[in-house]
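Aim 2 progress update. The chain analyzed this quarter is reproduced below.
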Amino acid sequence: MQVIDLENNAFTGAISINVGQMVGLATLRLAGNDFTGAIPAQLGNLDNLRLVTLEGNNFDAGSFVPEAVCIRNPFIVVTIDTSISCPGRCCTVVAV
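Predicted structure tokens:
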């Protein structure tokens, strides 16, 4: 599977750590839901990942994009809102 698009579906709960096992995943669109918890560090295992949308969710305070996501994927684009921190330069803050 290369694309998972779950944007704007009112999904709740945490993002499964098993997402890190989807080795062929290139696009993960999760914006506009009600996901909670932390952003899984396992996203950093996905070498083919090029786009991740995370804005508009309810992640835990202090949530951050795992640094490995930006390091392993130098051409990745990660969209976030101001409630999420990003240690690398791969993130773009978008208005929600």
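The longest strand covers residues 77-80. DSSP finds one helix and seven strands in the chain. These observations will guide the mutagenesis experiments scheduled for the next reporting period.
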